[in-house]
Design brief:
Order of helices and strands: EHEEEHEEHEHEHHEHHH
Strand order of the largest sheet: 2-7-1-8-9
Function: Essential for recycling GMP and indirectly, cGMP.
CATH topology of the domain at 7-36 and 98-201: Rossmann fold
Radius of gyration: 18 Å
Helix content: 40-55%
Catalytic activity: GMP + ATP = GDP + ADP
Keywords: ATP-binding, Cytoplasm, Kinase, Nucleotide-binding, Transferase
Bound molecules: guanosine-5'-diphosphate, adenosine-5'-diphosphate
EC number: 2.7.4.8
Structural class: alpha/beta
Strand content: 15-25%
Number of strands: 9
Main location: cytoplasm
CATH superfamily of the domain at 7-36 and 98-201: P-loop containing nucleotide triphosphate hydrolases
Length: about 200
C-alpha cells in the first residue's frame, strides 16, 4: 500500500508574509506538495484568478458546501467565509502526496482536531514594528484600520502556542528554507516511516 501524504498547515497573523512565503514555496520545483486552493466569499482582487488563488463563491454556495459536509474546515474572517474543500485534500493525501494549507488560526484548530498527525507551522514576524511596516507597505488601510489589524495580530500571535513549530519570517528565503527543513524532518519521524521497516524489524502493524 502506498504511504499517505502529510498535511502541512501554515498560519500566522495578517501581514506577516504567509502569501509571500507560500508563493515562494510553490515556485521551488524541488517541493513535492500540492497547495490546496481555498474557497472564499470575499471579493476577487485585481490579478486574482478563480480556481488559482481561491474558488470565489457566493455566500449561498459556500453555505451549501458546509451543509453537504464538503469542507474540511472553515472560518469567518473579516465578514467573509474562508474554507478548505475536503475532497481535494482527501484524494491528494490518499494518493501519497503532501498537501499544504495556508489558513487562519481558527480553521487550523479545526484541522488539528480532525488530522492530529498534521504538521502545524506558525509564521511569526521578527517583531511588531516589522509587522506594522508590512501592513502599511501592503497598502490600502488607513491609520485606524492598521491599529485594528495590529490588535488582531497580537491575539493571533498568542495562538502560536497551539502549533508545533514557530518560523520567523525575517527574510522570505530563510523562512522558506526553515519550513522545508521542517517538512524534511517530519517525513523521517518514526511513526511515519515504521511501516517501511516492517520486514527488517518484524514489526506488524
Ligand atoms: N480558515 C481558513 N482560512 C483561510 C483559508 N484560506 C485563506 N485563509 C486565511 O484568510 C485570511 C484572509 O485571507 P485574504 O483575504 O486572502 O487576505 P490576506 O492574506 O490577509 O491578504 C488569511 O489569514 C488566510 O490565511 C481557508 O481555507 N480556511
Ligand atoms: N520577509 C519579509 N520581509 C519584508 N517584507 C515582507 C516579507 N515577507 C512578506 N513581506 C511583505 O509584507 C507584506 C504582507 O505580505 P503578505 O504575504 O501579503 O502577508 P499575509 O499573506 O500574511 O497577509 C507584503 O507587502 C510583502 O511583500
Amino acid at each position: 500500500m502506498s504511504k499517505r501524504g502529510m498535511l502541512i498547515v501554515l498560519s500566522g497573523p495578517s501581514g506577516v508574509g504567509k502569501g509571500t512565503v507560500r508563493q515562494a514555496m510553490l515556485q521551488d520545483k524541488a517541493q513535492n506538495f500540492k497547495y490546496s486552493v481555498s474557497m472564499t466569499t470575499r471579493q476577487m482582487r485585481p490579478g486574482e484568478v478563480d480556481g488559482v488563488d481561491y474558488y470565489f463563491r457566493t455566500k449561498a454556495e459556500f453555505e451549501s458546501e458546509i451543509a453537504n459536509d464538503g469542507m474540511l474546515e472553515y472560518a469567518k474572517y473579516v465578514d467573509n467565509y474562508y474554507g478548505t474543500p475536503l475532497r481535494y485534500v482527501n484524494e491528494t493525501l490518499a494518493s501519497g502526496t503532501d498537501v499544504f494549507l495556508e489558513i487562519e488560526v481558527n480553521g487550523a484548530m479545526q484541522v488539528r482536531e480532525k488530522c492530529p498527525d498534521g504538521v502545524f507551522i506558525f509564521l511569526t514576524p521578527p517583531d511588531l514594528v516589522s509587522l506594522r511596516d508590512r501592513i502599511v507597505k501592503r497598502g490600502t488601510d488607513d491609520e485606524a484600520t492598521i491599529e485594528k489589524r495590529l490588535e488582531k495580530a497580537r491575539g493571533e500571535i498568542k495562538m502560536m502556542q497551539n502549533y508545533d513549530y514557530a518560523v520567523v519570517n525575517d527574510k522570505v528565503g530563510l523562512a522558506v528554507h526553515r519550513i522545508e527543513k521542517i517538512i524534511e524532518s517530519e517525513h523521517l519521524r518514526v511513526p511515519r516511516v515504521i511501516d517501511t521497516y516492517k520486514k527488517m524489524i518484524g514489526v506488524v502493524r
